[in-house]
Amino acid sequence: MADALATFGGTPGERRAVARAARDLADDGRLAADRGVEPAVTAETVVRELRQAPDGGPSERWNWWVGSLDVAYGGYRAFAVRRFRADGDATG
Fold it and tell me: pLDDT (tens digit, 9 = 90+) per residue, 17-70?
């Protein structure tokens, strides 16, 4: 997933943070239930959705998508990316 997110630039640390948030969203199962599609979170789906964001790097685009999911269905704010290591090092 992190490699697929390179399309949107950002640092490796930012892309890993978004990939972790996407994995958390997939594991949660909420999007699959809300959309009635399984699997609802794949690398292809995330890239397609993030391309619709107006601009920004991976985390800005991810947060735009998560925000739109929150407006549409509710309960998605927990999946927003709030922090990441800009230097590219892995975070715990």
Answer: 999 999 999 999 999 999 998 888 999 999 999 999 999 999 999 999 999 999
Q: Which long-range contacts (CB under 8 A, 24 or more apart) does 63-72 make?
A: 66/21, 66/25, 69/31, 69/34, 72/34
d(CA 32, CA 28): 9
Residue recorded with tokens 């950002």? 10
Note whether 84 and 91 are within 8 A (CB). Answer: yes
Nearest Cα residue to 25 out of 75, 64, 84, 87: 75
How many residues appear in the chain?
A: 92
